[in-house]
Write a structure and sequence with these properties.
Blueprint lengths: L8 E8 L7 H12 L2 E8 L8 H10 L4 E4 L13 E2 L12 E5 L2 E5 L1 H14 L6 E5 L3 H13 L3 E5 L3 H13 L4 E3 L5 H7 L2 E4 L23 E4 L8 H8 L3 E3 L1 H17 L7 H10 L2
Parallel strand pairs: 1-2, 1-3, 4-6, 7-8, 7-10, 8-9, 10-11, 11-12
Antiparallel strand pairs: 3-5, 5-6
């Protein structure tokens, strides 16, 4: 760790539900110490708060002088209408934001799940294309990952969600953007898993609070790679089963670290290169 003198203070935070165990404050404060930025990063947890309104709370952060906030489940799509300008060009078509910046009374938005996923994918798989992908979960993070898959060159994005209206909406948006997407219903899920080159979990299944594995281990093995957006725990039941089946694994940590680095750059203007020391340090926080 370097000993750069902090030259500015920035107030930031993470807004979500059930985020008391989040390590994002530690990452952002660590990056700030490394780069000479005094980061005051707080948690804004809507879980158990009667009448919590993420839109009103984000507007309050603007009024209170926050530099910006990260937004996580289940508010990424809720804050979409607040944004008047993109913070990063090319993110505005996704339909959800996980990073908001506040300056001169203007709320700008970006989706670092989108950029962070692509960085994590390339870190693990290099220039290999995703092929045909079956993705479960078409909510806030799912929208970002689906567009990331399209940008990476997926030949087909098959979408499954227990809420059919969500997968149908995302499918239409992807197709309108020029990507090849289709909806998979429950009765066709097993066949879609078997036919896929890559499997993606963008649901909460696998978290400590929602244990389990959406993908039956008996149908794993014919695919090439998997990605799990869940990072607590690091080794989800899905990742363990996929690794046992010999598939290449991209973990939720890969998404978490890269979207965090991208968010820090958006908040501060400081670009932080990833390194093995940084990766090792961040991994130790999640044990």
């Amino acid at each position: 760790m370097n000993n750069k003198r902090c030259f500015m203070t920035m107030v930031m935070g993470l807004m979500g539900a059930g985020i008391s165990r989040s390590r994002m404050p530690r990452l952002q404060q660590f990056l700030g110490t490394q780069q000479g930025v005094n980061v005051n990063y707080c948690l804004i947890d809507g879980e158990g708060v009667d009448g919590f309104d993420p839109v009103a709370r984000a507007q309050q952060c603007l009024a209170e002088g926050f530099s910006g906030i990260n937004v996580t489940h289940p508010y990424k799509q809720r804050v979409w209408p607040l944004v008047s300008e993109p913070a990063v060009a090319g993110h505005e078509h996704i339909g959800s934001y996980n990073t908001l910046t506040f300056k001169d009374g203007v709320i700008r938005g970006a989706n670092t799940d989108f950029s962070g996923f692509m960085r994590g994918y390339r870190f693990r798989r290099g220039k290999l294309a995703p092929g045909k992908v079956l993705m479960a979960g078409a909510g806030g993070v799912g929208r970002a990952i689906a567009f990331g898959l399209g940008e990476l060159g997926a030949t087909e994005i098959a979408l499954y969600d227990i809420h059919l209206e969500q997968s149908s909406s995302l499918c239409a948006t992807l197709n309108a953007a020029g990507y090849n997407a289709r909806v998979v219903q429950q009765q066709d899920l097993a066949d879609a898993i078997t036919a896929a080159d890559g499997l993606v979990n963008c649901t909460a299944i696998g978290m400590y609070s929602h244990p389990g594995n959406l993908f039956d281990p008996s149908v794993l093995g014919g695919q090439q790679w998997v990605f799990d957006a869940v990072y607590t725990p690091l080794d989800t039941e899905f990742i363990i089963a996929a690794r046992t089946a010999g598939l290449q694994c991209i973990s939720g940590f890969d998404l978490w670290i890269y979207q965090g680095l991208d968010a820090f750059k958006i908040f501060t203007g400081v670009d932080v290169e990833d390194s093995q020391d940084l990766i090792s340090e961040a991994l130790s926080w999640l044990d």
